[in-house]
Amino acid sequence: MTLVDDDVLVEAGSRGQNLLVTELVRLVERGHATDEPGVSRERLDAYIDEIGDARDADTIRAELEEQLTDTESWVDVNAVYEVENGRVSRYPASWHEAVEPADDLVDVVRVLNERVSDPPESGASEGIAEEFLLDALEVLGDWERERAKNRIEELRSAGVLAEYTDQHPKAGVRVADES
Questions:
Q1: Residue 140 belongs to domain with CATH number
Q2: I want to staple 160 with a disulfide (CB 3.0 to 4.6 A). Which of 55, 62, 155, 169 is the partner?
Q3: What's the pLDDT score for residue 168?
Q4: Nearest Cα to 25, choosing from 38, 7, 34?
C-alpha cells in the first residue's frame, strides 16, 4: 500500500471540484521529492483514491490520461508528462534533465525562458510568471518556496533578474542582461 502525505492530501482536497490534474501532479511531486523525476503512477493513484469526496476518481483518471504526453518539450499549461519508468510529472523530462537541485536560480530562469515560447500564467509579453517559476523551482530544483521568493527578490534588487516592463500585474521574470 502506497502512503499519502496528509498535508498534500489536505491541500489537494481544499481545491474541491476546482482541482486540476496538473495541480494534483505538482502537489504530489513536491510532497514526494526523490532522485527520480516525477512520481509513480501508483503514488498518484493513491492520492486520486484518497481525494474521494472532493472529485470523482474516475473523472480525475480520465483527465490524467487525456492530458498525459510523452513529449520531451513543453506543450502547454494543461499537459502532464510521462518522464521515465512510467513516472508522471508536471514538467517535461528535458526540464528535469536541464535543471538540477544544486542549480543557481538564475540558471533555472534562463532554462525556462529558453524552453517556453508562450509563458504559462503570465500576462507578460515575455518571461516566466513568478508563480510558475516558484512552482517549477519547488519540483525541479527542490527549493523551498519562501527561500525561492526571497532569492528572486535579492536577485532583482541586485539587477541580476528583471521583469518585463509591460505594466502587467503578472510580468515575466527574466535574466536582466538577456533582454
A1: 1.10.10
A2: 155
A3: 52
A4: 38
**Nearest residue to 44 via CA among 92, 77, 90:** 90
Domain boundary among 95, 130, 145: 95
| Cell 508536471, located at residue | 90
Amino acid at 65: E
What's the burial of 70, exposed, middle or buried (CB within 10 Å: 0-12/13-18/19+)? exposed
Cβ proximity of 25 and 85 under 8 Å = no
The angle at the Cα of 112, spanning 98 to 44, to the nearest 5 degrees, equals 70
pLDDT value at 146 more than 90: yes
| Domain final residue pick, 58, 78, 95 | 95
Evaluate whether residue 71 is within a structural domain: yes
| Entry pTM | 0.85
Per-residue DSSP letter, 171 = P
**Rounded CA separation 64/112 (Å):** 24
